[in-house]
User: What shape does this take?
Amino acid sequence: MTELIEKTPFTEPFDARGSNRLAGTRRQAVLSGLIALTLVLGVFAYSLMVSSDDLRVDPAARMLAPSLEHLFGTDLLGRDMLLRTLLALGQSIGIGLFAGIVSTALSVILGLLASVNRLADRIVGVATELFLGLPHFVLLMLVAYAAGGGVKGVILAVGLTHWPRLARLLRHETQRVLASDYVAVSRGLGRSPLWIAQRHLLPHLIPQIIAGFVLIFPHAILHEAGLSFLGLGVPPHLPSIGVILSESLRALGSGLWWLAFFPGLGLLLVALSFEIFGESLRRVSDPDEGVA
Assistant: This one.
């Protein structure tokens, strides 16, 4: 009997080294996530405080290379590229937020709709696989063109084309929860579907919804830049990374490399920062992270 008790998991020694390693890993994940989120929010806040009217045209400062006075150089009209890049990144972040919210909301609606009955589940499943089978960027261009382009067209194009993967995930998670024993017990006790959705479904779906939005956001800002580059997104008079990159194509042959390099680098850094933030959320919420 003594030997049996000693082998039970309740008498195993506490692994302080593993616990410290887990805590250190999560602290590192939280720190990297906060730094990445601060970078994105800082760029967005700065773009809100600065007006596009501050982009003054200065013919005497046309096509200046990067220097202490103009860190990112100036463009063909003498406008400061650092200020123009920050304003364009803020525009991309705002569009990405709205588009991500639209796409996430649509995913949640369809994911919950699939739990109503078998017919609804089959319809949602077929629609999801159909959208996943279509060429993604071609569908983006078609929706943006049909919506008339502009900021509204980009938001609708990204929001209406990025929902399938998250909707499929939420649909499978909803089915798994509804098939569990505790949901069956709740139904046997006469609980309403609304009560079951509030007490059983939402606690399981909220982490998936947050993770889905975090993954949609970087794709949204990259696709906004792609549509604006092709002339189907943000109008040329508004700051946009896609517009800047499109305009810089004419100047690259003349050696004006900074017109495309810094805006493109800024876009990649913002997208990568939000990816790092999403990865930090996953590592913090994963109970096995850091356990060797």
Remarks:
- The chain is about 70% helix and 0% strand.
- The radius of gyration is 25 Å.
- The domain at 27-50+79-285 is CATH 1.10.3720.10 (MetI-like fold).
- Confidence is low (pLDDT under 50) at residues 1-12.
